């Protein structure tokens, strides 16, 4: 079986270089690497293209503009599926790295014994060692009705609209601190989904969007991620579509990936207030797309 890693690059040359180099440890004979330069305004894309020009396993795809997370990854997904004829496609952030020679072998063996559509590895912060998966889904809950979930998600969108307005006058962090102190975080609209232990294998759970592995079963039906978002929220939408279409998603802690955490965003948006506004803006847009998907089912 052929296994392809798809890496979306934007400006941070050293992160992408570290990510690609870490894959050299993978002890599996049929691995391809696809790098998409997502319209980087600096020369980092050209540098990467030159760096790996003599490596036949690394494929470089340029995008003239920054088309966002989902559409950028889908460029690589389409190439890996239709040009490389890959059986498995792993979308991994460029600020991640692998330190397990059996990373691919474990995933393929898991699929052979228990077929799945989507797999999420255990994600560990390389900064403080904390676990970042599996994710708690605050946007919707499988145990609630669709109408109830629409109300939950609308409340979250309305909340982040207020946060975006407060961020424009640099008062959002103050608001958060006060609310947390008074209400101990219960003020934030939540679906009520429970958290899971990171060492526990789980099915049908929201996985971390920085590392998503798609199997042949997924590739038979889809051409990548839902592509009407720019950034953030893709994992919630994928979780919803998986539930809607009855796909098998598993969180598999036997494979581990390390994450440097939002390295590209922090590099491009050094001002913390601007970074928060960017997050709120795209959170609202992505969750609005998810809300539309839910309403279509009503």
Report on this model:
This protein has 298 residues and is of the alpha/beta class. The protein folds into 2 domains: 3-136 and 195-261, Spore Coat Polysaccharide Biosynthesis Protein SpsA, Chain A (Alpha-Beta Complex), CATH 3.90.550.10; 138-194 and 269-298. The chain is 42% helix and 18% strand. The chain contains 10 helices and 9 strands. Strands 1, 2, 3, 4, 5, 6, 7, 8 and 9 form a 9-stranded mixed β-sheet that branches. Strand 2, helix 2 (44-51) and strand 3 (58-63) form a beta-alpha-beta unit. Helix 5 (146-167) runs antiparallel to helix 10 (272-297). The chain is globular, with a radius of gyration of 19 Å. The model has no long low-confidence stretch (mean pLDDT 92).
